[in-house]
Every structure is written in C-alpha cells, then in structure tokens.
Amino acid sequence: MILVEGKSVYGDICIGKLHVFQIKKNIIKKYKLENTAQELERFEAAKTQAVGELEGLYDKALSEVGEANAAIFEVHEMLLEDPDYLESIQNIITVNQLNAEYAIGVTADNFAEMFAAMDDEYMRGRAADIKDVSERLLHILEGGSGNEKILSESSIILADDLTPSETIQLDKSKVLGFIMRRGSANSHTAILARSMGIPAIVNTGIDLKEEYNGKLAVLDGFDGKAYIDPEADLLEQMRERQKESIARKEMLKSLKGKENVTLDGRKIKVFANIGNLSDLALAMENDAGGIGLFRSEFLYLENNDYPTEEQQFKVYKQVAENMAGREVVIRTLDIGADKQADYFKLDKEENPALGYRAIRICLTQTDIFKTQLRALYRASMYGNIAIMYPMVISMEEVRQIKKLVQEVKAELEQEGIPFKADVSSGIMIETPAAALISEELAKEVDFFSVGTNDLTQYTLAIDRQNPKLDSFYNPHHKAVLKLIRMAAESIHAEGKWIGICGELGADTELTEEFLLMGIDELSVSPSMVLDVRNHIRGLDLSII
Ligand code: PEP
Ligand code: MG
C-alpha cells in the first residue's frame, strides 16, 4: 500500500482505478533533414489539424460550459497563429534543418520559460497553454490526435497539474476524483473539483508512475490522503465511510425544495456563488434560492480581451432567465490583486492586495465600468438582477458610482433601450473601513454582502494568497466577527439586508452565530448549499 498526502480541495471519499496522465518527457527525437520544404508542409498540416480540433473543442465547451469557459480554446488557436511562435518553429526547420517535432519542442520550452518568468500572473498562466498547444501538435505529428485524454471507465485521475484544455476534455461523468502531483487550491482542477463536488487533493508530490495505471486506489478528500493498493482492512473502513458519505448526500438531496428554517422558525436565504454558466447549472441542481455572488470578473479572466457589452449582456441575461425571478446578485468587475488579465496592462505593484483593484479600476477607467453597467441594466429586463460593488471604502466612491449609473441609464433611455429603473444596488463589506462606516453606506444602497475572504485579509493584515501564513489566517478571529456583527446592526437599523458571500458563509461552525447576528443570507459554493440548509434545519435558537 502506498500512502499519498496532499492538500484537500474537496472533502469526500472515492474508490476506483487510477488513470495516470503521464507527462511525456524527452521522447522528442532530433534529426537532420534534407527536404525542409516537405517538413514545413508536415508542420503546416499538423497545425491545420490542431486548429480543427480546437474549433471542435470550442463548440463542445460552448454547449457544455458556456462562452466564457470555451474562450480558452480561442486562446489556444491564437497561440497557434502567433507569428513569433510560428517563426521560431519555421526557422529551426529551415535554417537549422531539423525536424518539426524538435522545432516544436524547443520553441515550446523557450516560450513557456519566457511566459513563466513574466511578472504578470495572467501571462505566467499562459506557460501551461503554450505547452498544451505544442503537445497537441506533437501528438498529431505522431499520427494521433491532440484529444487523447479519453477515459474509458470511471477513474481517479492522477496527474501533474491539468491544463484547462485537459480539464474540459475530461468526461466529467467518469471522473471519480483527482490526485494531483502539483497544483494549488486555486488551480483549474481545484476549482472544478470543488464546484462539481468530487474529492480532490493537490500538491502531493507523487511520482506519476506508469505502473500505477489501473491500480486500485482510495482517495480520502476529508483527510487529504490517498492510498494506492490499499490494504484490505483500510479498504473496508473506507468503504464504510464512503457509504456514510453517500447516505449523507442522499439525505441532503431530500432537502431540495425544503426551507432554510431553524427548528424555532427562523428563516434565512441560502444562495450560491458562481463564476460562470456551468456553476449556474450546479447552483440550480443544488436548489440554491438565488445567486448571492456572481463573480463577473471571470468573464474577463477567461477572455483575451475586454468582453464586449453584447457578450456580457448575453451571459447576464442567461443567468437571470435561468433563475426565473429568483434574485441574482452580480458583482461588478473585481479585477486586480490576485485576479489579473494581461490586457488590462496593470502595473506591477509592491502591495497588489492594497493596490489598484476592483472599484478603484472601475472608477478610474470608467469606459470599462460603463460597458459592464450597460450590459447589466439591459439584462435587468430578463429577471431579478441586483448589482453589487466590490471593495468600496467611502461615501465618495458611492457617489461616483451613482453618478456613472445615472449616466448609463440616461444613455440607454436616449437610445430607446429598455432597462429596469429600480435595480437594487449593494456593497461588499470587504474592508474594516466599509464595516465601520456601514451605517452611512446603508443610507445609500439596498443591501450588503460580507466578503469574509478579503475582510479577514484586511482586518488581520494577512495576505490571503500566502500559503506560509495559512496558520495565521483565521477568519474566526474575534475582530472579524465583531466587524460583521457591527455591520449587521447598523445595516438593519436602516432597514436594509446583509448577507455573507465569503467562504465563511459555508462554515457551519459559525452558522448559528450568523443567525444570531441576524444575517439575512448566506451565499456559498453550489456544492455546499444543501449542507448549510441541513445545518440550519437542526438549529434551535430559542434554547441559547
Ligand atoms: C471575499 O472577499 O470574501 C469575496 C467573496 O470576494 P473574492 O473571494 O472574490 O475576493
Ligand atoms: Mg473579495
């Protein structure tokens, strides 16, 4: 039996055969050519096939996970057409008279290294993409297809760190879990695992040995462990725990359609956080009462240029329509700090978390902000949309937001474009400043939502991204809870509502305390909705 330990991304248990996604290393042959023209043709043909495959994947992703997620394949197509990338490959073939495989391999390594060394986080992320498209070309030159990661049976994926296109190619119904050699809690795989609710551990450092293929393994996402070739009694023990987990899930399913109500009759809204249309499907499947946080910046992050008004309008409209009258809180662009898109061309900063981000960008690059506001107001005609502003710290900012909103409404009216005049507006409480002046802010907007991820970071002065500080980052800290309680009191005094949309909203150790504070809504990851509902239904606030 081999024990594998890592960081848990989603707690659940699965048992199944391993499917190893091998990293293909050093198998690229290098040889001299006579006929370089013929080799160039070979390369061109492979490129054409790769573009065709990517177009197919784009269409598949478009229908399965929506435009924003499909955009990654357009990025790959663009990389394949990148003049510098092509020139490098063509030069190695013609000038050095070397074979296409070698030319692609060297170019991919050079470009990936160059991207990986960039300051811009988004560009660093492109290193994986350049390797991804290059690998596709190599597979095609080998006589295969770039789409080779097909699962024949339900499996636990054992991989280094999946690229976006590998993730999308997976038949999700056959993925039992993920064991990743590298990867962070914010990697594509982690996000996917969490929203799909399947067990996953990352950063295990495991060797991806071919011999693991087909071996039986147990993945215990609760404890961040996996066992390859488990011993009989451990297997038995895990089967028992898995049965309990399945029974619990079944029990949770039976809560669909039920109210989020305590034993003594206190009700609270339980909504879902989403970043794209596939999350929306999960939110609906898990019976979320509404969307408490649509992180609209994912539309920007998954695009290689500013999403147009029309592109945004379509997505917002689709979410509003699907939620059929239930509340959909869409947060305006929260880019900057840990969320970078290269086309914003943001300067490198000493302290990005304290820097040019979110509403600060929107209030200084008003054209970007107004495009989003136009899309949101237009989409408001199709459902129950509310708009929420991130990282607000002052009344002055609220006044500026309102002025821009007025301008957008006036423009739409002048153009004869319909919109709802009374769209609710809200503010995120992500800084001590916002909590401390919530009494004043509450006079200006309709609702609030506490972003506990950032509120913890800014209250405790601890970078939420720094894994070294994990043991210090304590969202249960008295100071954080005191700020939430204070905000709840002043917001309620103005007759407005307050929710929690940071990760703490799903922390059932605090649900009771939040209910006692009078929190009106908890917005959580789709896979946590029924869990939180279950917890609420077991509470009795009258006996405290
Ligand atoms: C938060 O800060 O808690 C929040 C919900 O926003 P994000 O995690 O997207 O910064
Ligand atoms: Mg935040």
Describe this entry's structure for a reader.
- By secondary structure, this protein is an alpha/beta fold.
- It contains 20 helices and 16 strands.
- The strands form two sheets. Strands 1-8-7-3-4-5-6-2 form an eight-stranded mixed sheet. An eight-stranded parallel β-barrel has the order 9-10-11-12-13-14-15-16, surrounded by four helices.
- The structure holds phosphoenolpyruvate and magnesium ion.
- Residues 430, 451, 453-454 line the site of magnesium ion.
The average pLDDT is 90
Major sheet description? 8 strands, mixed
Q: Identify the bound ligands.
A: phosphoenolpyruvate, magnesium ion
Helix count? 20
Number of strands: 16
What Rg do the Cα atoms give? 25 Å
Shape: globular
- Overall helicity: 40-55%
End-to-end distance: 48 Å
- Lateral strand order in the biggest sheet: 1-8-7-3-4-5-6-2
Beta-strand portion reads 5-15%
Q: Structural class of the secondary elements?
A: alpha/beta
Spans of at least 5 consecutive residues with low confidence: none
- This entry's quaternary arrangement is single chain
Give a quick summary of the entry.
With 544 residues, the protein is an alpha/beta fold. The protein is built from 20 helices and 16 strands. It is globular, with a radius of gyration of 25 Å.
List the defining traits of the structure above:
544 residues; alpha/beta; eight-stranded parallel beta barrel; 20 helices; binds phosphoenolpyruvate; binds magnesium ion
Question: How is this fold's topology laid out?
Answer:
Layout: E1 2-5, E2 7-10, E3 13-20, H1 36-65, H2 67-80, H3 83-94, H4 100-116, H5 121-141, E4 155-159, H6 164-169, E5 175-180, H7 188-196, E6 200-202, E7 216-220, E8 225-228, H8 232-253, E9 269-274, H9 277-285, E10 291-295, H10 297-301, H11 309-322, E11 327-331, H12 359-364, H13 366-379, E12 384-389, H14 395-414, E13 424-429, H15 432-436, H16 438-441, E14 447-450, H17 452-460, H18 478-493, E15 497-500, H19 511-517, E16 521-524, H20 529-537
Parallel strand pairs: 3-4, 4-5, 5-6, 9-10, 9-16, 10-11, 11-12, 12-13, 13-14, 14-15, 15-16
Antiparallel strand pairs: 1-8, 2-6, 3-7, 7-8
Helix pairs in contact: 1-2, 1-5, 2-5, 3-4, 4-5, 11-13, 13-14
Bound molecules: phosphoenolpyruvate (PEP) and magnesium ion.
Phosphoenolpyruvate binds at residues 293, 295, 334, 430, 451-454, 501-502.
